[in-house]
Amino acid sequence: MERVTITGGAGFLELNTGGRAELPQSLRIALATGQVRLPLAETLRELLALLVDGQYRVSGPQRFEAASLVPASDWPDDDDARVTYYRTAIRSGHRPVAVVLSGTRPLLVDGHHKISAYRAEGITPSVVLISEVVGD
């Protein structure tokens, strides 16, 4: 787990309020393949810059029960081509990584197709979890 201080953040993404991030191609590839490099704060730098200023913990990739996730956009159909691609990857042993903002209602920032594929395969998803540090 890493601790991150955001100053001068764009405030585009707020915990429990929604928002959809457009991630850089290099990060999208790392998440799709499960090849997320440490330190997470550096790997997720452009995403973290979209948060409101504050203290955060970044952890993962880790298993996360997806039942309570609030999607930032609609869930794709299980027969969607990208979901099918991720289902095949998961069955082959790969663990693509989604990004979740933790809170009273965990918000799925990136990985709607991945989470749909994990659900269809009956496997607990792999995520990077970003949590706001409150009163620490």
Outline of the structure:
With 136 residues, this protein is an alpha/beta fold. It has one domain: Conserved hypothetical protein from pyrococcus furiosus pfu- 392566-001, ParB domain (Alpha-Beta Complex), CATH 3.90.1530.
Explain what you see.
This protein has five helices and six strands; from the N terminus they run βαααββαββαβ. By secondary structure, it is of the alpha/beta class. Helix 4 (81-91) packs across helix 5 (112-121). The longest helix is centred in the middle third of the chain and has 11 residues, at 81-91. The model is unreliable at 14-18 (pLDDT under 50). It has helices spanning 25-33, 40-43, 45-48, 81-91, 112-121, and strands at residues 2-6, 54-63, 70-71, 97-101, 107-110, 126-132. Strands 1-2-6-4-5-3 form a six-stranded mixed sheet.
Give a topology summary.
Elements (H helix, E strand, L loop, with lengths): L1 E5 L18 H9 L6 H4 L1 H4 L5 E10 L6 E2 L9 H11 L5 E5 L5 E4 L1 H10 L4 E7 L4
Parallel strand pairs: 3-5, 4-6
Antiparallel strand pairs: 1-2, 2-6, 4-5
Helix pairs in contact: 4-5
Q: Keyphrases for this structure?
A:
Conserved hypothetical protein from pyrococcus furiosus pfu- 392566-001, ParB domain, six-stranded mixed beta sheet, alpha/beta, ParB/Sulfiredoxin domain-containing protein, 136 residues, single chain
Low-confidence segments: 14-18
Helical fraction equals 25-40%
What is the 3D form?
Answer: globular
Order of helices and strands: EHHHEEHEEHE
Please work out how many helical segments DSSP would assign: 5
What is the CATH class designation?
Answer: Alpha Beta
Q: What's the CATH architecture name?
A: Alpha-Beta Complex
How is the biggest beta sheet arranged?
A: 6 strands, mixed
Q: For the CA atoms, what is the radius of gyration?
A: 14 Å
- Global structural class: alpha/beta
Strand line-up in the sheet with most strands: 1-2-6-4-5-3
In total, how many domains does the architecture comprise? Answer: 1
Count the E strands.
6
Protein name: ParB/Sulfiredoxin domain-containing protein
Organism: Amycolatopsis albidoflavus
